[in-house]
């Protein structure tokens, strides 16, 4: 049963089935409950508590480029450590993570700050490996839970064009004919598009879009810095360009960001609630800082907060997402 729309109006059966998928401009609770949710709040808290002061027993190449390293803790669990000379890349990674937490977007692996100190009990046994990595004492690194067994993730056809019909514009013929796995992908992508718009991340889908001018197959290639677990859950990797570097380059990439947001008209209910709350309160900067201080009580003073000018850009981009939601509600709600 592909639930295709027949000539003329959709049948009552089609509409009944569609109601199990979308409700106005929101994905239905029934659909969301059937989709994978990668990193629960409980899992995040457990990982952070367990690894907070755990000794590091190995530091080796891995986790991408430059001075990033794969670290192994005493209990054999592993984390990716992001080491950067530029503080704004550490800020971008960390504040993007906490913004995702504010939005209830659960696709970034558990993340925490750590301070390098080769003489401390935590790092002492790997001091030679730290020296080989050219890590300086007192630098902050971002530790992210290592996720094994992931595969590349592709951009859904709905988001490969620019300025095409927004979801759920051709609802019955589009959403009604999709498999559960395809619907779960679209549900997760709705969060990805909102999140990457807010942070102006240019190292994920924007990377594919920008490079299409040289390679017309880029949108069919795996999405940059996006992986998929075996259960279908998407994992958003490498968010360091968010909120800082991406904001500096808005003039260059704004059109790509806008076209992706314009292609989206169905959202996860909790994301809509968070966007509307933060838009009404105008408090995203304060809320983000308070969450950061609460979650990083030992180290928050060692990382400069999000500058006021960046907060203003973030608040404006929240307003853009809010306006897109409201515009979609006027067309599709009810």
Automatic annotation (TrEMBL):
Q: Report the superkingdom from the record.
A: Eukaryota
A Gene Ontology term for the protein's cellular component: extracellular space
The biological process GO terms on file are:
cell-cell signaling
Alphabetized InterPro entries for the sequence: FJX1/FJ
This chain's protein is named FAM20 C-terminal domain-containing protein
């Amino acid at each position: 049963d592909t639930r295709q729309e027949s000539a003329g109006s959709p049948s009552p059966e089609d509409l009944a089935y569609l109601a199990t998928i979308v409700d106005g401009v929101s994905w239905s609770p029934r659909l969301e409950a059937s989709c994978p949710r990668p990193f629960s709040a409980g899992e995040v808290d457990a990982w952070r508590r367990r690894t907070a002061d755990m000794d590091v027993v190995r530091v080796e190449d891995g986790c991408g480029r430059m001075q990033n390293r794969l670290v192994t803790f005493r209990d054999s669990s592993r984390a990716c450590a992001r080491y950067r000379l530029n503080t704004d890349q550490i800020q971008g990674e960390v504040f993007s993570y906490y913004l995702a937490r504010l939005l209830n977007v659960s696709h970034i692996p558990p993340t925490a700050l750590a301070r390098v100190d080769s003489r401390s009990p935590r790092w002492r046994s790997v001091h030679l490996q730290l020296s080989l990595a050219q890590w300086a004492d007192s630098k902050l690194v971002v530790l992210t839970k290592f996720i094994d067994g992931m595969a590349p993730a592709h951009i859904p056809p709905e988001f490969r064009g620019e300025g095409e019909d927004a979801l759920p514009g051709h609802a019955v013929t589009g959403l009604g004919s999709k498999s559960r796995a395809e619907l779960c992908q679209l549900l997760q992508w709705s969060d990805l598009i909102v999140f990457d718009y807010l942070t102006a991340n240019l190292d994920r889908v924007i990377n594919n879009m920008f490079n299409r001018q040289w390679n017309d197959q880029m949108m069919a290639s795996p999405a940059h810095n996006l992986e998929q677990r075996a259960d279908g859950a998407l994992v958003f990797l490498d968010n360091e360009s968010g909120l800082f570097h991406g904001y500096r380059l808005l003039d260059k990439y704004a059109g790509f960001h806008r076209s992706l947001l314009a292609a989206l008209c169905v959202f996860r209910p909790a994301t809509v609630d968070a966007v509307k709350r933060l838009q009404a309160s105008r408090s995203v900067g304060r809320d983000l800082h308070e969450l950061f201080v609460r979650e990083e009580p030992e180290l928050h003073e060692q990382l400069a907060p999000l500058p006021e000018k960046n907060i203003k850009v973030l608040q404006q981009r929240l307003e853009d997402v809010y306006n897109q939601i409201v515009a979609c509600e006027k067309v599709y709600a009810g």
